[in-house]
């Protein structure tokens, strides 16, 4: 059965209070500040969805290299993360491939570019891309 590719953006983060005793209050805030994920719950908001076959066709238009391999990793792992270390190369690759995109692919590229700019402004933000069977289509920022 063909799947859906879903992009999610970190929307907020909080500490699961039952996992953090009162005597480690300062440690809890320190962990939030530095972004460690021990005892921290990340809330991801859905941003964009597309058919798996459309995703694969879209990324096939990216020039060969690190970005394309990264995005193709979704089919192997079922999930990939895009964080601040990927931003510059992704922006460059999207700009390079943009003229070859179909109109709908340009919308996806613009949505992804908005996400990448969010990461540039706030490095703690990241994007998770997942392969799933659920049916829903949207792109919102």
Automatic annotation (TrEMBL):
InterPro entries: Formate_DH_maturation_HycH. It holds the Pfam family HycH. This is Hydrogenase maturation protein HycH. The lineage of its organism: Bacteria, Bacillati, Bacillota, Clostridia, Thermoanaerobacterales.
């Amino acid at each position: 059965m063909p799947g859906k590719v879903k992009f999610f953006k970190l929307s907020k983060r909080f500490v699961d209070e039952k996992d953090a005793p009162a005597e480690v209050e300062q440690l809890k805030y320190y962990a939030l500040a530095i972004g460690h994920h021990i005892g921290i719950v990340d809330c991801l908001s859905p941003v964009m969805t597309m058919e798996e076959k459309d995703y694969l066709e879209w990324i096939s238009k990216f020039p060969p290299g690190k970005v394309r391999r990264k995005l193709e990793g979704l089919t192997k792992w079922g999930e990939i993360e895009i964080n601040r270390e990927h931003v510059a190369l992704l922006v460059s690759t999207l700009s390079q491939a943009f003229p070859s995109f179909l109109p709908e692919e340009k919308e996806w590229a613009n949505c992804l570019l908005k996400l990448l700019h969010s990461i540039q402004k706030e490095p703690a933000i990241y994007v998770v891309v997942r392969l799933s069977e659920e049916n829903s289509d949207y792109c919102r920022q």
